[in-house]
Design brief:
CATH topology of the largest domain in chain B: Cyclophilin
Order of helices and strands of chain B: HEEHHEHHEEEEEEEEHE
Largest sheet of chain B: 7 strands, mixed, barrel
Strand order of the largest sheet of chain B: 3-10-7-8-5-4-11
CATH superfamily of the largest domain in chain B: Cyclophilin-like
Oligomer: heterodimer
CATH architecture of the largest domain in chain B: Beta Barrel
Distance between the termini of chain A: 36 Å
Largest sheet of chain A: 7 strands, mixed, barrel
Structural class of chain A: alpha+beta
Radius of gyration of chain A: 20 Å
Number of helices of chain A: 4
Helix content of chain A: 10-25%
Largest interface: A-B, 29 and 35 residues
Strand content of chain B: 25-35%
Helix content of chain B: 25-40%
Number of strands of chain A: 22
CATH class of the largest domain in chain B: Mainly Beta
Strand order of the largest sheet of chain A: 13-20-17-18-15-14-21
Number of domains of chain B: 2
Radius of gyration of chain B: 19 Å
Number of domains of chain A: 2
């Protein structure tokens, strides 16, 4: 039996804070979306900074962070979009292991420029796994803390299995991602490319699209030039993965994200490559996306590069003893 | 993988057969395999298996499909339903739409066996077909904000069941006391893609009795393999 400990009590829940890991795989055919961190890259970095397995459960902070009473001495790390981290009102760094003591108040401010940040804790957050994952899927009240976002007075537990790190880890300056609210993402065209005219595909690849106010963990409705659909348009529902660009009859694309419905009938003009999904997961209303087509083989090469980058960041973490800080 | 461009039990059975074949083959690198009306999504990790290799393996399985279609274990599930009244607020309208009596609609809906084409929309929602033309009815013009759990609906030539309360535009003709989805089950959905389903009209008393048994966990669904 894993032992767990009470880590935090929620003083303020923040705008929309949920427990997420790398997602729930294998149940798409039962209508269960993959869920998991919108920005997987930052979640992995947060985990590595507290010496966790990279798939450990973290708090995903959206727009505005929570305020937490620390109930047990712990080591934490915050990664993702720029956010003010305070312990008892004193600023604390992101991208670094931070020690907190029982009785401390840990507060996280507003996420700047982008949308999401991740709070990892040494050992990982302990919630009952559902279908093999700790991730919260709010729509079906599954996973996380009672299948929902944090509320005042929730108590968050953590695994008590890991010894505290006797050194402090931080990400080398050069490896700290630079987030932007105007992004270029690469796509592989299809699978229903034949549902669009040549002009439609050109419009899609040459125009910037804005994220509208209808943007959440399920997906983003985009605003921009109408993508012309052809005469023979595919309409029979089929399975969809996160990162798909669907085009409904009005010609305005809809991006599916981690909590998207598992099936859909709109034709898909393209799918965003896996290694660009974390960038996409950081976007908020009024941010801009440009799509760039690449061949499948190039997409696979980039995924390889992306995985390698995570390995490099981890192997080059700076290690300092606590007394040097 | 695509099989034509129509919705029919014949096409869909091929999809399920290929799904079974791919699942049974336990190909390394494949992390999701999702059957839908006329296509099968095979999601893979390109760091483990290349696209070309995967396609050739799946195509190879496809050539052996006939055996899978005939060998597939048919699971049949009987779904008890209270039709009409508060449980099926659109039954009257559906019957008027087709100039049928309510009992005709119920008879036609419950006499057929349906194939579970796919599961989607929300966790555990089965898309069943195909529905008899006599009762095929378009969706509501304006979807309801809340459709109660267990509601049985009609949309065009399909029928389906809401596993939990959700917004929805299907015409609701009845409600089942069965639980369709529970993540604590080994297979989280009562119905699997490719299963055969038949509806059975029951009284409100029977509904209450079944629902009590379901919540105690003592209700054995009328499932036969």
């Amino acid at each position: 039996m894993n032992s767990s400990m009470k880590l935090f009590r929620v003083i303020k829940p923040g705008f929309f804070t949920t427990v997420q890991d790398l997602g729930r795989y294998g149940f798409l055919k039962y209508g269960v979306p993959i869920s998991g961190a919108m920005d997987e890259f930052s979640l992995k970095l947060a985990n590595m900074l507290v010496g966790n397995n990279l798939s450990g459960a973290c708090l995903e902070i959206t727009v505005l962070g929570p305020e937490l009473e620390v109930l047990h001495d712990a080591q934490i790390a915050v990664a993702g979009g720029d956010i003010l981290v305070r312990v008892n009102g004193q600023g604390a760094p992101m991208w670094q292991t931070v020690s907190v003591k029982r009785g401390d108040v840990l507060s996280l401010g507003k996420v700047h420029a982008v949308c999401r940040a991740y709070l990892a804790v040494r050992g990982g957050i302990d919630v009952p796994p559902v279908l093999g994952s700790w991730s919260t899927y709010v729509r079906c009240e599954m996973g996380g803390i009672h299948g929902r976002q944090l509320k005042v007075d929730d108590v968050i537990e953590g695994f008590d299995t890991a010894q505290p790190l006797d050194f402090c880890l931080s990400v080398q300056e050069d490896f700290v991602p630079r987030f932007s609210s105007e992004v270029n993402v690469s796509v592989v065209l299809g699978p229903q490319l034949e549902s669009f005219t040549k002009k439609g595909v050109e419009t899609f690849l040459s125009s910037p699209y804005a994220v509208t106010i209808e943007a959440d963990r399920m997906g983003y409705r985009l605003e921009g030039p109408v993508i012309e659909r052809g005469e023979q348009v595919a309409t029979i529902s089929e399975a969809i993965l996160p990162g798909s660009v669907q085009v409904p009859p009005n010609g305005k694309p809809i991006m599916t994200m981690k909590d998207a419905q598992t099936t859909g009938g709109y034709p898909k003009i393209a799918i965003v490559i896996s290694s660009d999904l974390p960038i996409l997961g950081q976007l908020k209303p009024n941010d801009w996306i440009r799509f760039q087509e690449i061949p499948l083989a190039e997409a696979h090469r980039r995924l390889c590069e992306y995985n390698e980058k995570i390995r490099v960041v981890e192997s080059k973490l700076l290690r300092r003893s606590w007394s040097d800080l | 993988m695509e099989f034509g461009n129509t919705i029919s039990p014949e096409v869909n059975r091929k999809v399920h057969a290929l799904h079974d074949a791919v699942s049974d083959a336990r190909m390394s690198g494949v992390y999701e395999c999702v059957p839908t009306y006329r296509s099968l999504l095979v999601a893979y990790d390109p760091m483990v298996v290349s696209y070309e290799e995967l396609v050739s393996q799946v195509k190879c399985l496809e050539t052996m499909l006939k055996a899978y279609v005939s060998e597939r274990k048919e699971r049949r599930v009987v779904i008890p339903v209270v039709y009409g009244g508060d449980y099926g607020p659109d039954l009257a309208q559906v019957s008027r739409y087709h100039s049928l009596s309510e009992s005709d609609v119920v008879r036609i809906h419950s006499e057929r066996e349906y194939l579970v084409y796919m599961i989607g929309f929300i966790a555990g929602f089965p898309y069943l077909g195909e529905l008899a033309d006599e009762i095929a009815t378009p969706r509501l013009e304006s979807p309801r904000i809340r459709v109660p759990e267990g509601s049985v609906g009609i949309a065009e030539k399909q029928t389906g069941i809401y596993p939990r309360e959700a917004p929805g535009g299907w015409r609701i003709i009845g409600r089942t006391p069965l639980k369709l989805f529970d993540p604590s089950w080994q297979l989280p959905a009562l119905l699997q893609p490719g299963d055969t389903v038949k509806f059975k009209q029951v009284s409100t008393d029977e509904f209450m009795r079944v629902r009590a048994e379901v919540s105690k966990g003592s209700y054995g669904t009328f499932t036969r393999e």
